[in-house]
Design brief:
The protein is mainly alpha-helical. About 70% of the residues lie in helices and about 5% in strands. It has three domains: about 1-400, Up-down Bundle (Na+/H+ antiporter like fold), CATH 1.20.1530.20; about 420-605, 3-Layer(aba) Sandwich (Rossmann fold); about 610-640, no CATH class. It contains 28 helices and six strands. The longest helix is centred in the N-terminal third of the chain and has 32 residues, at about 195-225.
Length: about 650
C-alpha cells in the first residue's frame, strides 16, 4: 500500500512538471518558477494532492541538489578558476560577504534573531538565481556585455560558495539546537562523536581519498568501462560515483554535497568528463525539478496572508540591499555606461540555492517553520519579479544612459566622396570592409556601437560613430554622391527603414544588404533592395559541399550539386515571395511542395552521366590520369629505342 501511495505521489509530481514548465517557459517565467508554481498548485493551498507520502519523494528529490553540485564541480577546471580569479573571487567574494553581512546584521538588530540564525539568513539571501539570470540575459543577448559577464562570474562564485556554506550550517546548528525542542540536530553519529583532532583526521582522509581516486584511478576505471561499449554501464558507473561519495560522506556525518562537488572538480580534467556530464544531466534535471516542486508545495500561504506587509517589506528590503551592494561593487570594478545598472538589476533577487539552504537549515533546526516559511515566500517572490526588474532596466533605465553617459557624440564625417557607404561594422560588416579595402575601394563606415567603434579604431579602421537609420547622418555621410550602400546592421526594422528612405530619395544608389532569414529577405525585396544575401547562406552551403565530398561525392559532383541547388533555390524563393504576405498555411504548403520537387530534381541530375573532361575537378582522378599518360610515354620511348 505504501509503495502504491509513493508511485501515486511521484505521478502527481511528474504530471505537474510536464504541464507547468512548458506553460511557464511560454510566459517567459523560466523553468524554476514553473516548478515552484506547479508545487503551489498541487500543494495543500490549492488542490492538496500532496500527502504525507510526498516526503518520500522529497527525500528522493533532494539527491538532485547533490547531482547539481557534482556537475558544477565538473565545469570548474582549476585553470579556469585561476584565469578568472580576480572577477570570481574578487567581485563574487565581496558581493557574498558584504550582502550576507548587511542582511545578517539587519536580521540580528531589527528582528531579534540570534547570531547563528542571522548568519544563516544572510548567507542564504546573499545568493542569486543562476537559472533565471543566465536564461534572461541569454534571451536578451546581454551575456557578452560587461554587465552580463560580471553577473556570470558572481553567479559562478555563488555556486562555489554553496559548498562551504553547507559545511558551515551544521556548525551553526550546534549553537541553536538547545533552543529548539523539535528536530534537534543529533551529534551522536559520524564525526560529531569524535574528538576534534579525530574529526580533522577523518575529514582530511576522506578528502585525500576522493582526490587520489579521482586524479589517478578514475581514468583507468572509466577506460575499462568505456571499452565494453555499453552506454548503460557507463551511465550506471557515473551514477555510482555520485551515490558512493554521497553515502560515504553521509556515513561520517559530513555534507554529501561537499564530497560530490570536490569529486567534480577533481574529475574536471578527466577525458571522460563530457560523457559523465551527459549521462548525469537528465537525472539531475528531473530530480532537481522535483525538489523545486516540493519546495513550492511547502510554501505556507497562510503566512503570506497573515504577514502580508511584513513579507512585502522584507522583499523590498532584500532587493534594495542587494541592488545597493551590487551597484557599488560594479562601480568599484569599473562597470559604467549603464552596465552597472544591468549588473545590479540582474542579481537583485534570491536564488535556487536559497531553497536548498532554507530546507537544510530547517532540517538542522537552525530556525523553525515560521522563519523558514517567510524566507521561502520572500525568495520565491523576488525570483518572480526578476523579469519585471530587467524590463524596467531595458525600457526605463538604459534609455536614460543612452541619452547621457552611454551616448558618444556623433562624429563629424569628413569623407563624403567615397563611392561606398558601409552601415554596420560588426561580425558581418568587418569582413565586407576588409574585402573592399583589399580591393582598393574607399568606403565610409558607420556603426552605432560606441564600444565597437573604439575597439575597431585601435586596429586601424576608420569608423564613424552614428546611427545609419538617421536620415541626416546618411546625407552627411555622402549618400547623394555614393554609388553603393551596403547594409550590415543588426536591426531588421532599421534596415527596412533605411532601404525605404534611400530608394525614395536617392534611387540611383544601389543597395546591397544582408538578411537574417527568409522572411527578412522577402521584406527587403518588397522594398526593392538591389542585392540581398542571407548572412549564413553561402557559408552553410560551402560547409555542406565539403561534407558531401567526405561522404563519397567527387569534387565536381559536389560543385555541380552546389550550383544546381543555388539555381533551383533562387527560383523557389522567387515563387515563395509571391506568397509570403498570405496566410502561413498556404506558404508552408507550397514550401513543402517545392522542397519535395527539389529532391526529385537532384535525384534525376545525379543519374546523368558526367563528361570525362569534368574529371579535372577531382585532383585525385587527375593525378591518376597524368601517371597513366606518363607511363604510356615512357613505354613508347622504350619501344622506339
Amino acid at each position: 500500500m505504501h509503495s502504491q501511495d509513493f508511485f501515486y505521489q511521484a505521478m502527481i509530481y511528474m504530471l505537474a512538471a510536464v504541464v507547468s514548465v512548458p506553460v511557464a517557459k511560454k510566459l517567459g517565467l523560466g523553468s524554476v518558477l514553473g516548478y515552484l508554481l506547479a508545487g503551489v498548485v498541487i500543494g495543500p493551498f490549492v488542490f492538496g494532492l500532496i500527502g504525507e507520502e510526498g516526503s518520500d519523494v522529497m527525500h528522493f528529490a533532494e539527491f538532485g541538489v547533490v547531482m547539481m553540485l557534482f556537475l558544477i564541480g565538473l565545469e570548474l577546471k582549476p585553470s579556469l578558476l585561476w584565469k578568472l580569479r580576480k572577477s570570481i573571487f574578487g567581485l563574487g567574494g565581496m558581493q557574498v560577504i558584504l550582502t550576507a553581512s548587511i542582511i545578517g546584521g539587519i536580521a540580528l538588530v531589527a528582528f531579534g534573531v540570534n547570531l547563528s540564525q542571522s548568519v544563516t539568513i544572510g548567507l542564504t539571501l546573499a545568493l542569486s538565481s543562476t537559472a533565471i539570470v543566465l536564461q534572461s540575459l541569454a534571451e536578451k543577448g546581454l551575456m557578452k556585455t560587461r554587465g552580463g559577464e560580471s553577473a556570470f562570474t558572481v553567479l559562478l562564485f555563488q555556486d562555489i560558495a554553496v559548498i562551504p556554506i553547507l559545511a558551515i550550517l551544521p556548525l551553526l546548528a550546534a549553537d541553536v539546537a538547545h533552543d529548539i525542542s523539535s528536530g534537534a540536530v543529533q551529534h551522536d553519529a559520524g564525526v560529531g562523536s569524535l574528538a576534534g583532532w579525530q574529526q580533522l583526521l577523518v575529514i582530511i582522509g576522506i578528502v585525500a581519498a576522493i582526490i587520489l581516486i579521482g586524479k589517478f584511478l578514475a581514468r583507468y576505471i572509466f577506460r575499462i568501462i568505456a571499452s565494453t561499449g555499453m552506454r548503460e554501464i557507463f551511465t550506471a558507473a557515473a551514477l555510482l560515483v555520485v551515490v558512493a561519495i554521497a553515502v560515504a560522506m553521509n556515513a561520517v556525518g559530513l555534507s554529501p554535497a561537499l564530497g560530490t562537488f570536490l569529486a567534480g572538480v577533481v574529475l574536471a580534467d578527466n577525458e571522460y568528463r563530457h560523457e559523465l556530464e551527459t549521462d548525469i544531466e537528465p537525472f539531475k534535471g528531473l530530480l532537481l525539478g522535483l525538489f523545486f516542486i516540493a519546495v513550492g508545495a511547502g510554501i505556507d500561504f497562510n503566512v503570506l496572508f497573515e504577514s502580508t506587509w511584513l513579507i512585502l517589506g522584507l522583499l523590498f528590503l532584500l532587493i534594495v540591499v542587494k541592488f545597493g551592494v551590487l551597484f557599488g561593487l560594479g562601480k568599484i570594478f569599473g562597470l559604467k555606461s549603464g552596465q552597472e545598472m544591468l549588473f545590479s538589476f540582474s542579481l537583485a533577487q534570491g536564488g535556487e540555492f536559497a531553497f536548498v539552504l532554507i530546507s537544510f537549515s530547517r532540517q538542522n533546526a537552525i530556525y523553525g517553520d515560521e522563519i523558514a516559511g517567510i524566507l521561502l515566500i520572500v525568495v520565491a517572490l523576488s525570483m518572480a519579479i526578476t523579469p519585471l526588474l530587467l524590463l524596467l532596466n531595458d525600457k526605463v533605465v538604459q534609455p536614460i544612459f543612452e541619452k547621457t553617459s552611454n551616448k558618444m557624440e556623433e562624429d563629424k564625417i569628413d569623407e563624403t566622396e567615397n563611392p561606398v557607404i558601409l552601415a554596420g561594422f560588426g561580425r558581418f560588416g568587418v569582413i565586407v570592409g576588409r574585402y573592399l579595402k583589399t580591393c582598393g575601394i574607399s568606403s565610409t563606415i558607420l556603426d552605432n556601437n560606441p564600444e565597437n567603434v573604439q575597439a575597431l579604431r585601435k586596429f586601424g579602421f576608420k569608423v564613424y560613430y552614428g546611427d545609419a537609420s538617421r536620415h541626416d547622418l546618411l546625407e552627411s555621410a555622402g549618400i547623394a554622391n555614393a554609388k553603393v550602400l551596403i547594409l550590415a546592421i543588426d536591426e531588421k526594422e532599421k534596415s527596412l527603414e533605411i532601404v525605404d528612405f534611400v530608394k525614395k530619395k536617392f534611387p540611383h544608389v544601389k543597395i546591397f544588404t544582408r538578411a537574417f532569414d527568409v522572411r527578412h529577405m522577402f521584406a527587403l525585396k518588397d522594398k526593392n533592395a538591389d542585392y540581398i544575401r542571407r548572412e549564413s547562406y553561402d557559408s552553410s552551403l560551402e560547409l555542406a559541399s565539403h561534407a558531401v565530398c567526405e561522404l563519397g561525392f567527387d569534387h565536381y559532383q559536389s560543385h555541380r550539386a552546389l550550383l544546381s541547388f543555388k539555381f533551383h533555390d533562387k527560383n523557389i524563393m522567387d515563387e515563395l515571395f509571391k506568397l509570403w504576405k498570405e496566410d502561413d498555411k498556404s506558404y508552408i504548403k507550397e514550401a513543402k511542395r517545392f522542397s519535395s520537387e527539389l529532391e526529385k530534381v537532384f535525384l534525376a541530375e545525379r543519374e546523368e552521366s558526367i563528361h570525362e573532361s569534368d574529371m579535372a575537378w577531382d585532383s585525385t582522378t587527375l593525378r591518376e590520369e597524368i601517371r597513366e599518360i606518363y607511363a604510356g610515354i615512357k613505354e613508347g620511348n622504350g619501344k622506339s629505342e
